[in-house]
Amino acid sequence: MPQGSPLPFTAPDSGLPHGLSRRQRGIGLAIIAVLCVLYVGFALTPSSYALAFDYLGLPAQEPLLGSARLIRSDEWMVYTPYVQIAVANDFGQVNAHSPYHEVLRTFQALPLRDWGLLFKPYHWAFMLLPAANAYSFFFLFMALAFVAGWALFLRQLRLPPLAAVLLSLTLFFSPFVQVWWTSNAGAFALAPWGAVAWLGIGNRWLRIAASAYALAVWLLAVAYPPFILSSVLAMGVLVLAFRRDALTLPRLVDAIVAGALALAVFVGYFHAIIGIVQNTVYPGRRESAGGGVSAISLLAHWLPNLMTYRYDPLPAFKPSNACEIAVFSSLLPLLTAVLADHRRLQQWARANTTTVSIFLAGTAFIACWIFLPVPLAVGKATGLYMVPPSRALLAFGLLLTIGCALALFHGGVRLDRARLWSVLALLLAGSLAKFAFGQGSVSRLHSAADAWPYLCLALLAFAATRPQLASRALTVVLAVACLGNLLATGLFNPVQSARPIFAVDRAAVLASLQQKQAAFTPDGVLVADGHYGALLPGIGIPAVNHVLYLPQLDYFHRHFPAMPDNDFDFTFNRFAHIAVSRTDAPVVDADVVRLPAATMLAGPPPAAPCAAAPCAARPQQD
Question: Regarding beta strands 592-596 and 519-520, do their DSSP bridges make them parallel or antiparallel, or are they unpaired?
Fold first, then answer.
C-alpha cells in the first residue's frame, strides 16, 4: 500500500489523455478499424453454437477462445438456428422447409428482405456478405453500438470523454449484460441512441427524425418489454435528475412526435402478430408482482462474485443459474463508497438537492420493486407488471453504476493509504462471506475470478504512488473498474468462428439421428426423441422438434382434436420449445412442450392452410 498522507483534492480530471495529438487519435481509430475488419473477415462471433455439434452427433467444435456456455441456449438453440433458417429461405418471410411454415417476422429481429430491413442496419451485411461474415458483422455492430451509444449518453450527462468511454466499457463487460448478450444484444446496445439524438441534436427536424429512427431500430431489434421498460426507466431518471435543462416544451413535444413515429413503424411492421402474442399464455398473459429477488443481490453490486463460483450460483442460491443470478456488479460502487471525497460530495449534494432527490427517489422506487413484495395492483398501475423484478435489475444496475461515476466526477476522489486498506478489508469480508452461502473448501467456493478485484486494487495502490496518475484519480478509478469487469466476464461468451455454423453437414446429422431411432412421417417430417430446440430446422431438416415464437394452433389441433379447450390453450397457445418424448399426451414443462412420439408419427397434418380469416398459425404479412 502507498505510504504518506492523503493526496490533496484536485478538481476532477477532464478524462482527456494529456498530450494526445490529432495524429495519435487518428492512429488509434485506424487500429480499431483494422481490428473490426479482421473480426468480420475471420467471421468471429460470441456464439456458443459449438455445443450444437455435440447435440447433433457431429465431431466436437471448440471455440477459438473461451468456452461455449450451455446456459446461453436462447442463442445457440434458438436465435442462431433462426438466423440459419432465414438464410436458408433466402431471407423470405416464411420458413418453407418446416412443417409449421412458421412466419419469420418475429419480435427477435431476423435478416428478412422486407421493408423492415430499412430499420435493421445491423442486418444489412446479410445482403452483401456471406452469411458467416454477416453474422459476425451483426455482433460487431451491436458491440460498437453499445460502447459508443452509452458513452455518448454519458457525455450528455456531462461526464468527460474518456470517463464516459471507460464507464461504457464497464457496463458492457458487466455480468448482467454479458450473460444475456448473445440473444438480447439489440435491447442493450440500441437503448441509448434515441436519447442521444434527442439530447444532442440542435436542429429540431433532424432531432425528431434521428430520434424516431433510433427508437424504431431499437424496438424492432428485440421487442422484449422487460429490458425495454427497464432501460427507459433508468434513462428517464437520469435525464430528469441531471438534464432537466433539456426538458423544455419544444423538446418534450419533439420526444412525443418521435415516439409516435417509432411506434407507428413498430405497429406497422408487427400488426399481424401483436394481437396473437398478447393473447398467448406465455409471454402475453404473464404478469409480475414485486419482490422475490434476494437481498444478497444488492450486496453483490458492491462485492463482485459474492453469490457465484466462476459464473454459477453458490449452493445457497440454487436452483438459480448463471443468467438469473447475474447483476451489474463491478468494483465501482465499492470504490465510490470508500474513495469518494465525502466532504466535497456532500457540498455538491447540498447545492443540488433536487438532482440528488430525484436520483435517489428513482433508484429507491426500482429497488422496492425488485426486493420488496409490492402487490400486483401497484405493478399494473405503474406498468411494472410487465417487468419481472429480476429483469428490473437492469434499471437498478444502470442507475447505480452511472450514479457512482457521476458522484466521483462531481465530488472527486481521494487515494490514500487508509482508504485503500478499507477497500481491501471489505473485499476480504466479501470473500469470507461466501462461506456462508455454500459448503466446501476455498477451491470450491472461490475461483480465479475472485482474485481479479485484488489485482485491480494493487494496480490502484500503485497508481496512488505515482503523482501523474494520482492527479487523474477519476480516470484511474474508472479504468480499474473497467479492467475488473473485463478480466471477470470478458470471456464469458467465447470467440467462435461463424463459418461452421453455416456449413453443418446435414447428411451426417440425419445419419446420427437415425441411429437414435428418429423416424420420418410419410410426408417426410422428422420426429426425434428429445429436445433439440430449433437446431434441426436450423440446418434445413423439416422436423416436429422446433422452437415456435408464435403458437401454431391449427397444426396442433389437427393432431390433438379431442383435447379439452382449456388444456389445449394452456399447452399450445404460447412461445414453446417443441420436444418429443414417449409420453401419452402433451406435457408442459416451463417453456418446453413435450409431444407424444406415437401421435406425431401417426399421420401428417393436412396440407390445407387456415380458412378465410387469418389464424394464429399463419398471420398475414404485408
Answer: unpaired
Q: pLDDT-derived band of residue 199, with 50, 70 and 90 as boundaries?
A: very high
Place of cell 452469411: 131
Please give the helix or strand (H or E) that residue 417 lies within, else none: helix 417-433
- Take residue 404 and report the three cell numbers written for it: 457512482
What is the distance between the alpha carbons of residues 541 and 607, in angstroms, rounded to a whole number?
18
Whether the Cβ atoms of residue 412 and residue 336 lie closer than 8 Å to each other: no
Residue bearing the bigger pLDDT, 525 or 318: 525
- Return the number of other C-beta atoms located less than 10 Å from residue 382's C-beta: 15
Helix (H) or strand (E) holding 515: helix 506-515
User: What whole-number distance in Å separates Cα of residue 152 and Cα of residue 144?
Assistant: 12
**Close Cβ partners of 249 (under 8 Å, ≥ 6 residues apart):** none
pTM for this prediction = 0.92
What CA–CA distances, in Å, run from 149 to 143, 186, 194, 430?
10, 12, 9, 33
**620: phi then psi, degrees, rounded to nearest 5:** -70, 150
CA distance 618 to 276: 10
The phi, psi pair for 621, rounded to 5°, reads -120, 155
Task: Check whether 379 has a pLDDT greater than 50.
Answer: yes
Amino acid at 544: V
Alpha carbons 477 and 406: distance in angstroms, whole number: 12
- Three cell numbers, residue 236: 428517464
- Enumerate the β-bridge partners of residue 103: 94
CA pair distance 558, 521, nearest whole angstrom: 15
Nearest Cα to 228, choosing from 363, 374, 395, 401? Answer: 395
Residues 218, 265: contact at Cβ < 8 Å? Answer: no
On the 0-12 / 13-18 / 19+ scale of CB atoms within 10 A, 566 is: exposed
Nearest Cα residue to 142 out of 16, 39, 64? 39
> Is the per-residue pLDDT at 613 higher than 60?
no
Q: Considering Cα of 524, then 527, then 533, then 535, what sign does the dihedral take? A: negative
Q: Which residues contact 217 (CB under 8 A, 6 or more apart)?
A: 119, 120, 121, 190, 193
Q: For residues 165 and 187, give the distance between their C-alpha atoms in angstroms, rounded to a whole number.
A: 19
Contact 418, 2 (CB under 8 A): no
Q: For residue 284, with 0-12 CB atoms within 10 Å meaning exposed, 13-18 middle and 19 or more buried, which class applies?
A: middle
- Residues paired with 519 in a beta bridge: 527
Q: 134-163 pLDDT, tens per residue?
A: 999 999 999 999 999 999 999 999 999 999
